[in-house]
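Give me the 3D structure for Pyridoxamine 5'-phosphate oxidase family protein.
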Amino acid sequence: MTQTSTRPRRLSPAEVHALLGEPEDMVKAKIQDRIDEYFRLFIAHSPFVSMATADAEGRADCSPRGDYPGFVKVLDDHTLAIPDRPGNKIADSFRNLAENDGIGLLFLIPGLRETLRVNGRAYPTDDPDVLARMRTEAKDPVLAIVVEVAEAYFHCGRALIRSRLWDPASQALADEIPSVGEIATAQFGMDIDPMALTHALEEGYRKLY
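Predicted structure for Pyridoxamine 5'-phosphate oxidase family protein (209 residues):
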């Protein structure tokens, strides 16, 4: 028996547009091409940003970035800088930017429902003046990503309201999945006590700085 495909049908841009309709004038008007005083304030209080990039073939990647509030620096009204803190060294974002310099950022502030979206072009730098502005615990990052801003705007809080992201009761969801140690042991066939691996990873997190 031939198995039929279960892949959902693809909609054309015209079909999508017909279903969604036109955005309101105020929605279109809120998109700016610079970082104004309110965007600066939001970035100065944000400890977390999701960073989306894609390679030349369009294969996309979204990377979480976080540090103390204000870790992303506003260099001027059209330029941001994101420090590259120690991580897994896979460097997907850097490889993507070498092929396709488009970038999308989503800033969050804990407890706030609205988010800040920034889109533009980006490239890596080791400029010592830029890195010095990102010094944390007496350490400069080795690299930073410079973002040339094309679009910036606040996004309404519907998604965070629906997800109940900041609701303390939602944290109970974390207890319903295996620990990172148990997952790593199962995925990679590691001959190690899952609890010991979890503790080792947690200790590593505590030594970030």
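The two ends are 59 Å apart (CA to CA). Let me know if you want a second pass.
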